[in-house]
Every structure is written in structure tokens, then in C-alpha cells.
Amino acid sequence: MAYHKEQTLNEWVRMLHSIYGLSQNYARTEYEILAHLSEVTGAFGKFLFKLKNPDRAKEFLPKMFGWAVALARKVKGERANLEDILLTKYPCVCPYCIGAPCKCVPGQKEPINEAKVRDAFFNQAGAQRRSLNDFQAMFRKIYEHSWGLANIEAGSAEALAALQKIYIRIIEETSELGESVRFVHLYASNFDNELADYLAWIFALVSSLHKASVGNAAQFLVEDLLWPAYPGVCMVCMLDICDCRPSPVRELLSKPSLRDLQFVDGLTHANNRAKFDKDLVAVADRTLPLPQPMTCIQIDLDNFKNFNSPPFDHMTGDAALKHLVTVLRQKIRNRDRVYRIGGDEFAILCPDLSGQEALGMVGRVALALKERLVPGVGSDGSAPPVVTMSVGIVECNDPAKIADSFKEADKAAIESKKKGRDQATLRA
Fold it and tell me: What is the pTM of this model?
């Protein structure tokens, strides 16, 4: 079906599952998904309250929604009807006082009267429109005055304090959602209840986040926030069924130890030259035993100076290098090791792969680079050049000769350049 940002909540669920559920999330457990949900929820708070960067914090709201959807699909499968889950708990009124707006006194909520909530569901929920913006409007009608931000100046200490109270509630709901997952086999309906609360506080954050910015910023609409992040395709590989390979290529939110950072290229997050040299020694002395044959691949980007010359600049060159590593991660296997060994020079160590198989793999990388352009524009509005590469491939069957094999692969890459670039040379 054709997806669009005004679609219903359940259509958003189907869209996200069709993009990620059958590729990225099918093998993940509910606890792995819950870990991702906790990670992005915590990251939102880190950027908003610790680093005072609301624009960066805003980027995590779509991720919070996306992982909540993934968790619902993992726990409930085809029965994940988020529209009913929300309206069963919040049938266009506060479930405690049955009012809209909510009339509850803070700290003095009455116990939920399930019969009244059920009556409200049958009397009102059927007429509730089901788009994300409609649900946002519903929660604003019920609770906006309770969020405590109506007459507070944007960007003030009072606004941040009120937002912090909302965030504390979503942290509480994250904890209770985790507990409901652990005991879902005993109390199945409690998962729905806690998921509804978590989603409700996401709508509160979206509706209130503009108060974190100085000035008269317009209130965010949830559809406008989510659609750029999830426009019917994966924004990394641009496919409607995500083909990205899981890999530690993004910057960690926490601070890795210096022991780890010394082996990571700061720009592309590939392994760096120090890691390359270390691994070659470990392969040669068999402290890193890899299955044979091992194939050594050397990559030189063609005419890389064109990315750094007018109308482009070094930022475009950096984007091209990161783009190459992203595509490599998508097209090679998880066990293949990618290294940035020079400015625009890369190496790949492929265990249990023949040279002929590597040649086919490199061909798929080259095709993907032509289909997916480097992001950015030049000063004259032109698109960056297509990334092409000259590649050398050597199959190695003796771990002691791994360094020599990479030297031969480098010579083969130079040969590819001499033959006209944008090709691969396989040496026996």
C-alpha cells in the first residue's frame, strides 16, 4: 500500500513492521527491543536536560515511537492494535475522573472505575479519528492544562522544570513497561495498559517540547516529526524493506573506553589502521584463528579530490567516506572486517570467502554506490559525484602470509586504476 504521514496509527504500525519487522527485528527478542527503547528514551533526556540541546533531543522522539511499535509487534504479533490499546485506556477522557479536560487533583487520583471507562469507550471512542495528529489533539484536550506549560515562557527555567516532570513520568512508564513484558505470560492485559501510558507520555513530550526552545517556536505536530524519520522507507538504505546490516557504525551515546576508541576511525567508525595492523599480526600468529580461505580486499576511491574541490568542500569528502562505509556494511557479511587504512584507502578482511565470491560481493557494492548518491549539494546546487572505486582482491590460504596478501591486493588495486578505474582486479 502507499504510505503517507496522515495515515492511521495502525497503518503506521503496519508500515514500520513492513520496513523493519521482517529484516531488522525478526530475530530480536522482546528484551532486546526493550533495551533499544530504554536507550533512546534515555538519550532524549540526556540531550534535553544535560546537554541543553532540544533540537538533538527531538531526533529521538521518532525512535521512541518506533521502538514502542516494534515492542508491541514482538509481544502481541498480529494482534497489536495500537488504536484500541490507546482508546481502551484513554477513551477520549481521563480514565480516573472520566473528564476531558482532566479534573483530577495531583496526587489524589481516584481508583479507575472500569465500568465507567468501558462506557466511555463504547460511547466516544468510535467517533475518535485515528491519525497520529488526531490522537495528539485528544491527549492535549484531556491533559494539556495538567502538563503545567500553558502560561510559562519558552526556554525558561520553569519550562524546563515542567518538561522534566513529564520526562520523569515517561521514565517511570518505561520501567513499568519493562515489568509488564517480564510478566506478560501471567498478566497479558497489563502490557496493553503500560504501553498505552508510555505512548500517552510520548504525545505529551511532542506537544510540549517547543517550550524548551527560546522564542515563540510553533508546537510540533507528531506526524511532521515522524514522517521525515520514517517516510515509507528506511532512511539509511532507502528501501521499503530495510536491508541495513547491524553494525556498530554509529557514535555511541555513552563514552567508550579509551581501549576501544584507539581502534576506531573517528570519521567513518570503521576499524582504523592500528586495528588493521594488530589483526594482521593476530591472524599470522594464529591468535585470531579465521576460517580459510581468507580473502584480502584493498579499495582506493577514484578521483577523491573531486569531492573536496569546488563547488564541493571537505564536508562533502567526509560524507563520501562515510557513505562508502555505510554501503559496505550493508553489502558485506557481518563477519567481514572493514578498515580505513589511509585517507581514501580501505581494506576488508573476509574469512571463509573465496576470491571469486569476493569479486561478486565487490560488484554488488559498486552497483549500490551508483544507485545511492552521496548526500549533500555543492555551492552551485549540484549533486556530488558518484563514488567509484578501484579494487584489488587476493585470496589467502596461509595465515602466515596475510600481510603479503594485502600487499598484493594493494598492487591489484593500483592495476585497476591503471586500467581505467571503477573496476576490480582478482589476483590468483
Answer: 0.67
